[in-house]
Amino acid sequence: MKTLEKHELRTQRKYDRFAKVYDIFEAGIEKRFFGKWRKIVWNTLPRDARVLEVGIGTGKNIPYYPDRVKVVGIDFSEGMLAKAELAAKKHSDKDVKLVQMDVTNLKFEDNTFDFVISTFVFCTVPDPISGLKEIRRVLKPNGTVIFLEHMKSSKFLRNIPLYLMEPIMRFTVGTSVLRETKKNILLSGLRIRKEKNLFSDIFRMIECTKGE
User: In CATH, what number is assigned to the domain containing residue 178?
Assistant: First the structure.
């Protein structure tokens, strides 16, 4: 088995185990920050859009889905999807289909989705550029990708606490708080249209087009 495949399998297993307490683990920061930011992201979507949400996790975005938006939510963790199923049942008025799938190997045709949404996902994907290229592939030529992500700061001092957190986060859930996600987005061929710092430049909202 290739090293990357082993890494993906380890990360998947970590999230399967962590799924039961994931929402409790993030409850404080979700209430204070993440929930507000999620609402901003989903409020930008028009009606009747066909949307792919990658890394849907426990389904925290589901309450914010706009009316008449058709969403396919994917995640590579069976445990996380089980929690997302409960969220989808609770919000049965939302049009959402859940599928177990890896973002680095999307089972969709080229140019399928109007929007792709990623919230706090690419800090974890073992091969982020492959995942971003897959997102670009399935996005329609006039489509939009919206990322809500945390990443390495451009300021050294801001990164000091991140370096301290890194070993703990990698061990527990395989997450890196030092990913250079903006750089990876550009390397994938996506073109950044808008960028907004939400908390310093560690938490950012980045809106992209498919590019040429």
Answer: 3.40.50.150
What would the pLDDT profile of 122-158 be if each residue is shown by its tens digit? 988 989 999 999 999 999 999 999 999 989 898 888 8
Supply 30's token pair. 């979700």
Question: How far, in Å, CA of 114 to CA of 51, rounded?
Answer: 6
Pairwise CA distance, residues 91 & 75, whole Å: 19
Look at residues 136, 142, 143, 128 and name the one whose alpha carbon lies nearest to residue 184.
Answer: 128
| Domain count along the chain | 1
Q: Does residue 43 belong to any structural domain of this protein?
A: no
Q: Residue 207 pairs with which residues in a beta bridge?
A: 146, 194
Structure tokens at 166: 């890194």
pLDDT tens-digit series, residues 5-43: 666 776 776 666 656 666 666 777 788 889 999 999 999
